[in-house]
Amino acid sequence: MSAHANADGPTIELSTVHFFHGPAPRVVSLKGCSLPMCEAMPGLMCGFYGRQAKQDGFMAAYAYAQLNNLDFTVIDFHVRLTSPINPVKMSIDEVGSHDLVSLAQARRELWKTIDFLIKDDTDDDAGGANLETDGKLLLLDRPGLISRVTDNMAFQHVKVMAFDSRTFISPRTLTVGVVPFRHWDAITHATCRLNPTTQVLLDSPIRQEKPRPPALAPAPAPRSRA
């Protein structure tokens, strides 16, 4: 995990990869460069989280690019937090005081909540004996389930949620961080590590509807002449 602290609060650096043919693009939009996961992740911006995940992820991206005759670049993006980073195990009662939640540091009672949110009635349940293990295994191949957590009222303030899963470019388990689109404004800046001249735009992925003109009252019907 790359974290930086300053007067405005700590920031977390996540990294994603962007594949392309030919010369590096002059401009890319971050919203179109979310880390490709093993299933769709609507409403979430994804990136590698932590030093080891980034190293392994970049190696996987290189192998994928070579296999598919592509080039790629690495995009680092920074997320501003408003709460201090919790360096120890986190309980469910502490979630409200932090806007970065890493499931690798979740206590059993927090995993109990996560497990309840991500599981369907049809999912296997081993009697709750291994909540953490069961939840982690489920998220490995179904990372989209994390949106059930980030959309829950108790977690809607969380700007970054980190967990282990699999990406589209590699079968390896890697730690990823997701930023819900509603916290897009917390992303302060983004740069291309391998192509520093490439500009990364931070335009919002949330469609802004154009304001509708006020409804006009129907014209009065013409008076009939007597």
SSE layout and pairings?
Elements: E1 2-4, E2 11-20, E3 27-29, E4 44-48, H1 51-67, E5 71-80, E6 100-102, H2 108-118, H3 131-141, H4 146-150, E7 160-166, E8 173-180, E9 187-192, E10 199-201
Parallel strand pairs: 3-10, 6-7
Antiparallel strand pairs: 1-2, 2-5, 4-8, 5-9, 7-8
Give an overview in words.
There is one protein chain. A hairpin with a 6-residue loop joins β7 and β8. The protein has one domain (2-201). By secondary structure, the chain is of the alpha+beta class. The protein has a 4-stranded antiparallel sheet with strand order 1-2-5-9. It has helices spanning 51-67, 108-118, 131-141, 146-150; strands spanning 2-4, 11-20, 27-29, 44-48, 71-80, 100-102, 160-166, 173-180, 187-192, 199-201. α2 (108-118) crosses α3 (131-141). It is built from 4 helices and 10 strands; from the N terminus they run ββββαββαααββββ.
